[in-house]
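Write out a record, focusing on structure:
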Amino acid sequence: MTVVTRVAGSVAATMLVVGLAAAPATGERADFGRTTARSGTLHRGCHDYRYDYRVTPPTDDWALETFLRDPRRERIASGMFLSDSDPAHLRSHFRVCRYSTRPGTFTVRALLHWYTATGDEHQIWLEPTRFRLRRP
């Protein structure tokens, strides 16, 4: 798993890229998985904020990318999970720093990729998860 955090207005990108260009985009679907996150408090400084994912792809060879958008709709964090090293259901976290974002509604987007035995790649966006972080 790789987590990317927004630090002092810039995004430190450490993300595994999984051949996105070859896969056709499709609509959002809930039956391939979901993400969940609880509302809470946006604490002073940098803290981890928990979220869960559960995927049910048609094959056992899959990758999941997660993206966190802040109330301004800016991408501030991301994660990467692979079937070779991660389970189909996991609790993870995004690291968020209060000085580089603001309280409000945050959105988790997740892009699921799966691969067939013939090497074909498929992808689908899971339904977004929204949660609120308020000032203390």
Remarks:
- The domain at 2-134 is CATH 2.60.40.1930 (Immunoglobulin-like).
- The first strand starts at residue 2 and ends at 7.
- The radius of gyration is 15 Å.
- The chain has no helices and eleven strands.
